[in-house]
Amino acid sequence: MQQFEESVYQLIVETSTNLPGDVRRAINLGRSMENRATRAGLAMSTIARNIKMAEEQVSPICQDTGMPTFIIHTPVGANQIEMKRAIKSAVQRATKEGKLRSNSVDSLTGANSGDNLGPGTPVIHFEQWENDYIDMRLILKGGGCENKNIQYSLPADLEGLGRAGRDLDGIRKCILHAVYQAQGQGCSAGFIGVGIGGDRTTGYELAKRQLFRTVDDVNPKPDLDRLEQYIVETANQLGIGTMGFGGEVTLLGCKVGVENRLPASFFVSVAYNCWAFRRQGVEIDGATGAISNWLYERGSDVSVEESAGQGAEDLAAAGGAADAEASAAAGESREIVLQTPVTEEQIRQLRVGDVVVFKGEMHTGRDALHKYLMDHDAPVDLNGAVIYHCGPVMLKDEEGWHVKAAGPTTSIREEPYQGDVMKKFGIRAVIGKGGMGPKTLAALQEHGGVYLNAIGGAAQYYAECIKNVNGVDFMEFGVPEAMWHLEVDGFAAIVTMDSHGDSLHEGVEKDSLAKLSAFKEPVFK
Ligand SMILES: O=C(O)C[C@H](O)C(=O)O
Ligand code: SF4
Question: What are phi and psi of 81, to 5 degrees?
Answer without folding.
Answer: -65, -45
